[in-house]
Amino acid sequence: ALPICTDTGITRELAPAVCQSGDPVQETFRFRRVPVPMGYNLLVEDPLPPRLRTESRYVVGASARSTEVACSGRLRATPRGLYTLGPARLWYQDLLGISRVSLASVATAQLAVLPRFKRVEVIDPPRSPSSEPDVITRPHRYATEDHFRFREYAPGDDTRRIHWRLSMRSGRLQVRLPETREITTQDVLLVLDDYLPPGQLLNAAHGADDILDGLVDAWLGIARALLDKGDRVTLVASVQGHDGTIRIETVPCRKGEAARWQDLGARAV
Q: pLDDT, tens digit, for every residue of 115-135?
């Protein structure tokens, strides 16, 4: 087996090891004083995860015995997710390609690709004939500056909405009614719901991973837009643990901690 250490052996690097989706990533194998016999080459091969659309193939000669040799290549794709590269397959092969001697598989690396934030615009709610807030909203603390209708005051109405000037002219108390619903959501639980029962067509459909990537991008974009409006946002997603089990993870959104949201998005499954 070939040792992996700083002075002798084979090391594998990814630069950068943490990036955002679509960023270029360079893979580098370094061979330091590796015992390659004369008349043979050392071949390295690693079929990377399919989503990276890349296969690592490198060849070094006998010069690796006395000096450091570096072989590099760029990943063709870097979609959202966490990836484990390796261990790579190694073997000695003579210059004519007749004989081959397999070696122990070595050289692993980790790559984390974080999702990007998509710009999301939160528009004003549509006009509604209803003057009352709906069940998932509550009124602003202060009266809005929207267009208003008026009606006579009834017991229980908010006295802050009394229009005193109109009340004096009419001789009866008049209250203002906004033409649009008042929406002031203070706490938002934003759940990434990507569950599909077993056996559904989408589970095996080509491009299902790309659909999930789009959902994650929109999910993070909505979270940032709501946070910019002053809402308190909490992200919820299902992630896969090291033992392969699926668990629900929650991350509160705070300004300046966007990398934590992206990390959750990268691990969402």
A: 999 888 776 655 555 555 554
